[in-house]
């Protein structure tokens, strides 16, 4: 039997006395696209920080392709874009991409970099400028380009469309669909339910520390007898 790309089992996370995750169970299959949705403060970023081993778990376990998430080797097949993406301000865009790819032992192919940057509608000339001169959306595009340039079996993206204009959002969705078509699994958070509906095989709704719903967007609408995903989401968390 194939190991899931991701498996959260009874994941618990507290900050002091405040319990944020209280027994989260969720799986992402290899090649599957799953979105994690929830209100502000539901714990989505906390779950991702746990997955990346940026913080200790207070209970439960996480595996990445069957390996304990705390082992550095387990995270090798994973590409990650954090929610608040702040590249070192003194690097040029090109230097940042080179830095990220080199860290991962990945060759830097200028033609591939140019193609990816163009595919995300970031001006190629911007790569020569330091990132301190970038707008929020340009910075986000740079982070996405660096992340997606490394071929990975699993991409974990915290609010990947944050700050992107409608054109860039559409281009990013095309890139993500291409990754999925090539066999990569995708696990991302989003507040944009239209994007979730369009992109995902399955969605998971995190509320009050637990997964309230996991299934396809169509199943979500059916379960909550809603015409729209927004209505279904609101009924789920009511
Ligand atoms: N380092 C921390 N110390 C204390 N509390 C924290 C810390 N990080 C997050 N929290 C709290 O944990 C809860 C979950 O936060 P988290 O950032 O995981 O939510 P989120 O679902 O990603 O929210 P958003 O949609 O607004 O990005 C919030 O109440 C937040 O204040």
TrEMBL record:
<feature type="domain" description="ABC transporter">
    <location>
        <begin position="6"/>
        <end position="233"/>
    </location>
</feature>
<dbReference type="InterPro" id="IPR027417">
    <property type="entry name" value="P-loop_NTPase"/>
</dbReference>
<dbReference type="InterPro" id="IPR003593">
    <property type="entry name" value="AAA+_ATPase"/>
</dbReference>
<dbReference type="InterPro" id="IPR051782">
    <property type="entry name" value="ABC_Transporter_VariousFunc"/>
</dbReference>
<keyword id="KW-0547">Nucleotide-binding</keyword>
<dbReference type="Pfam" id="PF00005">
    <property type="entry name" value="ABC_tran"/>
</dbReference>
<keyword id="KW-0472">Membrane</keyword>
<keyword id="KW-0813">Transport</keyword>
<dbReference type="InterPro" id="IPR003439">
    <property type="entry name" value="ABC_transporter-like_ATP-bd"/>
</dbReference>
<keyword id="KW-0067">ATP-binding</keyword>
<dbReference type="GO" id="GO:0005524">
    <property type="term" value="F:ATP binding"/>
</dbReference>
<protein>
    <submittedName>
        <fullName>ABC transporter ATP-binding protein</fullName>
    </submittedName>
</protein>
<keyword id="KW-1003">Cell membrane</keyword>
<dbReference type="GO" id="GO:0016887">
    <property type="term" value="F:ATP hydrolysis activity"/>
</dbReference>
């Amino acid at each position: 039997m194939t190991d899931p790309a991701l498996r959260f089992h009874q994941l618990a996370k507290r900050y002091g006395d405040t319990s944020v995750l209280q027994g989260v169970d969720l799986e992402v299959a290899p090649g599957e696209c799953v979105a994690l949705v929830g209100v502000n403060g539901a714990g989505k970023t906390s779950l991702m920080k746990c997955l990346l081993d940026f913080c200790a778990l207070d209970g439960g376990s996480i595996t990445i392709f069957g390996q304990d998430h705390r082992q550095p080797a387990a995270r090798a097949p994973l590409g990650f874009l954090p929610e608040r993406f702040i590249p070192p301000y003194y690097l040029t865009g090109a230097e940042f991409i080179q830095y990220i790819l080199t860290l991962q032992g990945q060759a830097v192919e200028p033609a591939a970099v140019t193609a990816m940057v163009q595919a995300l509608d970031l001006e190629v000339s911007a790569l020569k400028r330091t990132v301190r001169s970038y707008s929020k959306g340009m910075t986000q595009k740079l982070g996405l380009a660096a992340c997606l340039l490394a071929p990975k079996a699993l991409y974990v993206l915290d609010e990947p469309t944050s700050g992107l204009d409608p054109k860039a959002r559409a281009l990013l969705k095309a890139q993500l669909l291409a990754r999925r078509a090539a066999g990569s699994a995708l696990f991302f958070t989003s507040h944009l339910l239209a994007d979730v509906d369009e992109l995902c095989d399955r969605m998971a709704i995190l509320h009050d520390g637990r997964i309230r719903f996991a299934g396809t967007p169509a199943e979500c609408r059916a379960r909550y007898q809603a015409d729209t995903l927004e209505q279904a989401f609101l009924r789920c968390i009511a």
